[in-house]
Amino acid sequence: MKVGLLCFCLLLASLPLQAEERSKMENEISQILGFEQTVAHYFVEYKKQLFKLYPKLTEEYVESNYGSVFKYGKKRYMNAYIKGLSVYTDEELKQLIEFYKSDKGKWIVKKNLESNIIVLDDLALASDDFNKVFIEKLESK
After folding, report:
1. 96 with 88: CB under 8 angstroms?
2. Which DSSP string do the residues of 114-131 spell out, in sequence order?
3. Which superkingdom, per the lineage (predicted)?
4. Which letter does DSSP use for residue 102 in this model?
5. b/e per residue, 42-52, with b = 16+ CB within 10 A?
6. CB-based burial label for 26 (10 Å; 0-12, 13-18, 19+)
7. What is the pTM of this model?
8. pLDDT tens sequence for the chain (141 residues)
């Protein structure tokens, strides 16, 4: 009984250390893969769309009145990216980090970051195109 209780206590004591190590690996992958830059770019594009829809808005007005909302949004998006890493075991995260630090891994990351920016920019244009076609169709009825 005492041995079982001791093992249970040791398990409980090690869980925070394991969670901290996992969090460090997730943050490292996040930095390597440029999650923060991708999220920041997304919000730049979002603001551009906002200013197109509401041309009287200014950057200063939006920042002073809605800065906390954008800060929350960026944090929420980052949490979504981190949550996506839950499909990997701790060992797989270690292997990914090792791979992404290799020459081949660095090349893949570089190309993915370049690709993400193109996709995000084009998605903004696609959104404009879609909105335009939708409004034309709506107004023609």
Report:
1. yes
2. HHHHHHHHHHHHHHHHHH
3. Bacteria
4. S
5. bbebebeeeee
6. buried
7. 0.69
8. 665 654 454 445 444 546 789 999 999 999 999 999 889 988 898 898 889 889 999 999 999 999 999 999 999 999 999 999 999 999 999 999 999 999 999 999 999 989 988 888 888 788 778 878 888 887 887
